Amino acid sequence: MGALRTPREKWIDEGLRVLAEGGVDAVRVEVLAKRLGVTKGGFYGYFQDRQALLTEMLDTWEREAVDEVIDRVQAEGGDLLDQVRTAGRLTFSNDRLLPVDLAIRTWARRDPEVAERLRRVDNRRIQLSRDAISTFCDDPDEVEARALLAYCVAIGSHFLAADHPRRTRLEVINHAADLILDQGDRGHLR
Prior knowledge:
Oligomer: single chain
Order of helices and strands: HHHHHHHH
Largest sheet: none
CATH class of one domain: Mainly Alpha
Helix content: 55-70%
CATH topology of one domain: Tetracycline Repressor, domain 2
CATH architecture of one domain: Orthogonal Bundle
Shape: elongated
Number of strands: 0
Number of helices: 8
Structural class: mainly alpha
Strand content: under 5%
């Protein structure tokens, strides 16, 4: 009986963990093999080279960060505003997705192919906000501005080190979301 091989998914998952911890340059076959407690020979049974692993990692991230989040949001139901809040919570408060997402944003700054992948993911995500906001706002410019603000708050809040007098960071973010998603009468209601 032959030795059991380390499953392909374990290589990808460990690659994503290393990416989140140390960036794309830290994702090396030798490093992954050591962390998995195996030899690097098993890697080549699944992947032609490191680039093939990196592509699979991006595919996995995109599937988990967009497709699976959208599927879960739709399964949970609620109105579109509730769905956009749920999508944000699942994506930007997730201990697995958030660090990978932030690492991919750094990687995309120097790799045009990764930047294009990130653009596709961001466009799919921001469309959720557009769809939700357009249920109460009929001004396309305001819809776009609010969607952009919502997405900037979701991502940007992870890069800020500012204090918030009398409030926690989460309270301020939730209040910002309430302001952005406010359906109050401004002459733009449907």
